[in-house]
Amino acid sequence: MSKPKIRRPGISWTVFLLTLLLPVVASAQRPTLGEVARKEQDRRKAAKSSEKVLTNKDLPPAAPKPAPPPGAATPAPTPEQKPEAGAEPKTEEKDEAWWRERITQAREGLRRSETFLEALQTRVNVLSADFTSRDDPVQRARIGEDRQKALAEMDRVSGEIAMFKKQIEDIEEEARKAGVPPGWLR
Fold this sequence. Notes:
The protein is an all-alpha fold. The longest helix has about 40 residues, at about 135-180. About 65% of the residues lie in helices and about 0% in strands. It has 4 helices and no strands. Mean pLDDT is about 80; it is low at about 85-90.
């Protein structure tokens, strides 16, 4: 005769019970979101009460500036004073950085306008193809209006491109007359 098998709860029941009880035990140890928020609020109140705001009244007075020595250069004329008749007003010094910035801005504007013109041309092409493929007159009319707006915008951008090209030519001519080295405009 064989012995009767006694069924015992196996490991699977133990694991099952642990998975049910573990979150309950773990949550008892962690603070809730409300508790964390209250602690942070208390911490901020304590930090604000210990901060001191400084004003100009809290600072010591500044030492007066020393007088310029005799024979020093005369100060620049104030707006009320008029410069001497023989003296020319000083113009802005046009160095390499100034010329590079000026030509770079013009070239960047030209590049942006040319890119925009290409995008508009693509839009006009798509609208033209869409216009011919539609049978509904209402849709065709709306697409036709959009196409006309894109064509008008293309004309405006073409004018901008011409303006930027003229501006670049003018800058190059002005630089040539001013004796600016060509490398400054590259």
